[in-house]
Amino acid sequence: MKNIMNIFVRAFLTGLAIGVGGTVFLSAENKVAGAFLFGTGLFTILTFGFYLYTGKVGYIVENKPKYIGEVALIWLGNFTGTFVFAKLLLLTRVAGISAKAMALCEVKMNDSILSLFVLAIFCGMLMFIAADGYKKIPHETGKCLAVFLPVMAFILSGFEHCIANMFYFSLASAWTLKSFGFLLVMTLGNAAGGMIIPACRKLMTE
Length: 206
Hints:
Mean pLDDT: 96
Order of helices and strands: HHHHHHHHH
Shape: globular
Low-confidence stretches: none
Largest sheet: none
Helix content: over 70%
Number of helices: 9
């Protein structure tokens, strides 16, 4: 029970961090600057040892089956954190950025399932690169680049990050059966993308 609470709390705090990143991205007038500052969320997550679904899911191929349950709990914690952050933000003067979130969500809702899945795969790859790079690169400059560059790349490319989208959908109050279904598609796409590099790495070392 203690381990479950530990995982959920770390995942919940991650949701709050992603909320911060999403808020600054929507608030920034310059898209490039906003994409860079979104990386503050991931930098916080990795520095403090919080748990992000897209940073953990790729390691499924290197762990025992029970790890899948932990990843599912992380997803739930991330969802809760982003939802709470978004709903609290709507109580403030910053709530006006919800219009931008609505515009983002509309683009996603008008996309096809295949497009969302493929875009999520690419994002999953970048998020694994960020998480694994931060963990394995020995020098501090490299760690920072591993965090901020993949985040900027996925945002500016329009790739789909399921946890960031949890925040956008919550801020836009755009939750429907369809949007939740699309979120699951992106969740699976992020998982597939996150597993590509570790799976290939495992094959290369065997």
